[in-house]
Design a protein that fits this description.
Layout (H helix, E strand, L loop, with lengths): L10 E2 L6 E2 L11 H12 L16
Antiparallel strand pairs: 1-2
């Protein structure tokens, strides 16, 4: 049975920008440290997910 899942490509680490191979254990981060730096940014609320204004009418 063929594997129809899309193949992941190397991409920059979201924390430091170093290119990371998708086979790396910490992908998409280059190191555990970068993974924790990213987590810390979420915990400090430096990153946020936008949401719609509850008063906005959806048609």
């Amino acid at each position: 049975m063929p594997d129809d899942r899309p193949q992941l490509e190397p991409r920059p680490c979201p924390s430091c920008g170093k290119v990371v191979n998708p086979d790396d254990e910490t992908y998409p981060f280059c190191t555990e440290r970068c993974r924790l730096v990213d987590l810390g940014r979420w915990m400090d609320e430096r990153f946020r997910i936008a949401q719609r204004d509850p008063d906005e009418t959806v048609l």
